Amino acid sequence: MQYKKIITSESVGAGHPDKICDQISDAILDECLSQDQNSRVACEVLACNRLIVIAGEITTHAYVDVVKTAWEIIKPLGYDENDFTIISNVNKQSVDIAQSVDKTNKNLIGAGDQGIVFGYACDETPQYMPLTSVLAHELLKEIERQRRSKEFIKIQADMKSQVSIDYSNSTPLIETMLVSIQHDEDYDVEYFNKKVSAIMEQIAKKYNLNTNFKKIINSSGRFVIGGPIGDTGLTGRKIIVDTYGGVGHHGGGAFSGKDPTKVDRSASYFARWIAKNVVAAKLAKQCEIQLAFAIGQPQPVAMYVNTFNTNLIDETKIFEAIKKSFNFDIKTFINDLNLWTTKYLPVATYGHFGRDDLDLSWEKLNKVEDLIKNSK
C-alpha cells in the first residue's frame, strides 16, 4: 500500500441497530419536550436479539408511553410486534444533578455534567461539511429512499456506507465507495450489484467527482440477518457518524436522548453554529471550536479556536470576534438555538450537521455580519 493522503468517513442506515436505539431515544425526548419544555431527559436504549430495553432518567410532567413510541420507530423499518419484547426501566433524574442544573437564579442554567465538545466547519462542500461525510450520508439516504419507494426491492433497512477520498493532489479523487445492505434470502445478486453501483455513480456525479473508483458491495458475501437480531444496538455508539466523519475531533459525548441541559448535545450544536459562521464569514477555510464545561457552571470554562493554518486573519482576532458575536451562557445559547422546541428525531439518522434537507437553527448563517464587523 503506497502512501496517499486518504480521508475516510462512514454512515449507517435507519435500520442499523445502534441507529434504531438513537431514534427511539430521540422520539421519546421529542414527546417529553412537546408536552413539557422543562423535561429533563437522558434516555438510553439497548436492542439485543429480540429484546429492547428502554432505560435512563426522565423527570417530566409529560405522559409518554415509551413502549408505544418505540414501536412507532421500529414498525416502519420492517418489524412487527412478534419480533421484539420491549421493556422499560426509566427512573427520575438524580436530585444532586438537578440542583446543579436548575439554578436559584432563573436566568442561568448550569451544565448537566463536565465535558469537552467540538464544532467543526470547512468550505469543502455547500453544507460546510467534509466531503467524505456528505457522500457517505447521501449514499444511504438515496438507497433508503429507493427502499421505501420500492424502486430497490428485496433489501432491508440495516445498511452501512464508507467513502475514502484521496487528497494527495489538488483535485480530490474518490478512492473507494463501500456499501453493505441487508437483503432478502432470495435476492438477485446481479440486480443488487447493478443498483448499488448506479447509486454510487449517481452520488459521485452530483458532486462532479470521478466515477472510476473501487466499488465494494456487501463484502461479507451474505447479509440476511440484520438489525438488532443480528447485532446488539445501543444509543450513542455512532458519534462519529453523527458529527464530522473522519475529520475533526470529538469529545466523546453522544447526543441522542438528551435534553438541551446536557451540554454534550446543546454545546456541540452551539460550537458547530460558531464554526460554520466563521467559515462562511471567510475568516478561515476550516474552523474547529473546542469548549470545556464543569458541572453546575453556567458558561464554558475554556474555549479553543483551531483553523488548521487556514485562517485568513490572525486567529487571535477570530477568537475575539467570536467572543463578541456569541453569548456563551448555556441558557442563552439554548434559547438562541430554540433547542427546547427543536424536533430531534430527524437528526438521529444521517448526521446532526450539514443537513440542508432540514431547517436546523445551528446551521443558520445569521452571525456572519457580526463576525466580520467584530474581526476588524
From TrEMBL:
Enzyme Commission numbers on file: 2.5.1.6
Domain S-adenosylmethionine synthetase central, first and last residues per copy: 109-223
Subcellular location: Cytoplasm
Keywords recorded for this protein, A-Z: ATP-binding, Magnesium, Metal-binding, Nucleotide-binding, One-carbon metabolism, Potassium, Transferase
Classification via InterPro entries: ADOMET_SYNTHASE_CS, S-AdoMet_synt_C, S-AdoMet_synt_central, S-AdoMet_synt_N, S-AdoMet_synthetase, S-AdoMet_synthetase_sfam
One GO term describing the cellular component: cytoplasm
Associated pathway: Amino-acid biosynthesis; S-adenosyl-L-methionine biosynthesis; S-adenosyl-L-methionine from L-methionine: step 1/1
Chief location of this protein within or outside the cell: cytoplasm
Pfam family of the protein (one): S-AdoMet_synt_N
Domain S-adenosylmethionine synthetase N-terminal: 5-90
Cofactor(s) this protein cannot do without: K(+); Mg(2+)
Domain (S-adenosylmethionine synthetase C-terminal) ranges: 225-364
Record-stated family: Belongs to the AdoMet synthase family.
Subunit structure comment from the entry: Homotetramer.
Protein name according to UniProt: Methionine adenosyltransferase
Provenance organism: Ureaplasma urealyticum
